[in-house]
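Field log, afternoon session.

UNIT: design team B
ACTIVITY: writing a sequence onto a fixed backbone
BACKBONE:
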């Protein structure tokens, strides 16, 4: 095992040439600087022999650009963020950028640490889906010249943002039930401090108030047995309709309803704020709100590229529309 990484100095010393000569050749400028074909071949062969790998970030520092964008998300285990990261990475790669993806696990302290670490890696720009309010991030963002764009979760009101209007979309969902709920359970399993969840709760409550619908806010426990007990209590209290605020919570709600032998939509109705590929395989298939993840990712990437070209322009907010997928559960 090699004890240390091979450097340009190592290559130069092994061949008896200058570091500049090695650097010119490895950067494809051998002909431009009139370095013989024979020497170029020797340098490439020696680099292969010694397993030389360019120091990408050191090179970026020399040239003032690393062609790298940092992407900080709250919960990469969520399929939404997995797809969002994939789209952003693909779009930026087309434009010659690499993406460093980090996951805060919706932990504000970890988020600050990770953000600082991205900055220290001399990234050219940052895309952030903050786990919470951004008060703790503001000092970090103000201390750097690196341009940034918020995605999915709104950050600074004056900064670039691409996402949906969670409050309005949740409010509209309440009116989509085929039969007006007698009592609606608005279900989450997250901290209300997370901006998207808080906005969805506010929107759903507003929709209930407009429709004169009795409602209850529920934050599900983590254990399966406790979730089933919580859903049973809701049914016993007169709940006949459910509005889970993302697809992970919807799947847990559906599993509990099945355990309790509840028929959908005969006995209870359900609409999920987020869609899931699995929903079409249920019987009946599950009605859901489809977020345009691909569009959000593409528009976020475009906004990042625009910001990289001209960081002086004022920030803009782009709210994209969702699609209501009517199946059989509502």
């Amino acid at each position: 095992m090699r004890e240390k990484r091979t450097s340009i100095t190592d290559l130069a010393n092994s061949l008896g040439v200058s570091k500049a000569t090695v650097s010119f050749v490895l950067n494809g400028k051998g002909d431009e600087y009139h370095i013989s074909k024979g020497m170029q071949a020797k340098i490439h062969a020696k680099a292969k022999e010694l397993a030389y790998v360019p120091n990408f970030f050191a090179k970026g520092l020399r040239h003032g650009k690393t062609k790298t964008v940092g992407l900080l998300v709250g919960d990469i285990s969520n399929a939404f963020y997995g797809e969002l990261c994939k789209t952003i990475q693909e779009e930026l790669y087309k434009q010659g950028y690499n993406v460093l993806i980090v996951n805060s696990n919706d932990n504000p302290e970890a988020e600050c640490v990770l953000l600082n670490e991205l900055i220290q890696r001399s990234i050219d720009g940052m895309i952030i889906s903050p786990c919470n309010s951004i008060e703790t991030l503001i000092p970090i963002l103000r201390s750097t010249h690196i341009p940034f764009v918020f995605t999915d979760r709104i950050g600074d009101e004056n900064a670039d943002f691409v996402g949906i209007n969670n409050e309005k979309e949740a409010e509209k969902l309440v009116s989509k039930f085929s039969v007006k709920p007698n009592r609606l359970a608005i279900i989450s399993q997250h901290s209300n401090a997370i901006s998207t969840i808080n906005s969805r709760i506010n929107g759903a409550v507003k929709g209930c108030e407009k429709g004169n619908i009795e409602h209850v806010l529920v934050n599900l426990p983590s254990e399966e047995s406790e979730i089933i007990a919580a859903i049973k209590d809701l049914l016993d209290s007169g709940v006949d309709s459910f509005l889970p605020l993302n697809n992970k919570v919807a799947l847990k709600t559906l599993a509990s309803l099945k355990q309790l032998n509840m028929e959908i939509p005969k006995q209870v109705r359900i609409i999920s704020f987020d869609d899931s590929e699995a929903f079409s395989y249920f019987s009946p298939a599950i009605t859901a709100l489809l977020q345009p993840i691909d569009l959000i990712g593409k528009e976020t990437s475009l906004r990042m590229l625009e910001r990289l070209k001209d960081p002086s322009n004022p920030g803009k907010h782009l709210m994209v529309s969702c699609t209501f997928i009517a199946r059989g559960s509502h």
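LOG NOTE: The radius of gyration is 26 Å.
NEXT ACTIVITY: expression trials, pending approval
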